[in-house]
Design goal:
By secondary structure, the chain is mainly beta. Helices cover 10% and strands 12% of the residues. A three-stranded parallel beta sheet has the order 3-4-7. A two-stranded antiparallel ribbon has the order 1-2. Strands 5-6 form a two-stranded antiparallel sheet. The protein is globular. The termini are far apart.
Length: 207
């Protein structure tokens, strides 16, 4: 395993690395070997604005020739990434990976049948490490109405206003309310085979 650390970057600064697209070249391995790479990053503390953008991988050839078409094509409820070397099929981040009793991890799913995982939600598994490996989220809660209507209708902070809350930020409060109300966390329609298994261990209907 190799760790490549890139120092903070800035546009056009002399001694500071310039930001933009960087290329990583791997040499000296046998032909046909399989290489896995991921971007390890630390989220900033809550309410802290750093102004920095997170790093991510791109497949330049695929982006140039297939990205526009794929952005209009769904496969299993997600944009069709066939042929791309980069997959963002969510591995669990560093916050909710420990597999111990009392720790519940919430993912998100799309309410319309067949209740697929929301494309931004992690499906697991967690990366290997010194702690027990978590297979995936314990529960997935309603985070999107459908592929066309994203998010959950929520109340705003002004009189009478509503907005759509998008992301697993909508799942965690639902799970917390179930726990606080001492309601049983029963699993509905637990997935058994792809692509439904990408939801995690099971889903919960919105309370």
């Amino acid at each position: 395993m190799w760790l490549i650390a890139v120092e903070p970057t800035i546009a056009g600064a002399g001694m500071v690395p310039e930001h933009g697209n960087w290329k990583i070249k791997v040499e000296g391995i046998e032909l046909g070997s399989e290489v896995h790479a991921y971007v390890a990053r630390t989220d900033p503390n809550m309410n802290m604005r750093t102004g920095a953008k997170r790093s991510y991988f791109i497949d330049a050839g695929w982006e140039a020739g297939r990205a526009a078409e794929a952005g209009c094509t769904y496969a299993g409820g997600e944009f069709d990434k066939t042929g791309s070397l980069v997959s963002r099929l969510g591995t669990l981040n560093g916050i909710g990976t420990d597999s111990v009793a009392g720790v519940q991890v919430a993912g998100g799913y799309i309410l319309s049948a067949p209740k697929r995982k929301s494309p931004y939600s992690s499906a697991g598994p967690a990366r290997t490490g010194p702690l027990p490996r978590r297979v995936g989220p314990d529960y997935a809660l309603f985070c999107d109405e459908s592929d066309a209507l994203q998010g959950v209708r929520a109340g705003g902070n002004r009189s009478g206003v509503v907005f759509r809350l998008i992301g697993t930020s909508a799942a965690a409060p639902q799970l917390a309310r179930l726990v606080a109300d001492r309601r049983p966390l029963t699993v509905h329609d637990a997935p058994a085979s792809p692509p439904d298994e990408k939801r995690g261990d099971g889903d919960l209907y919105p309370p």
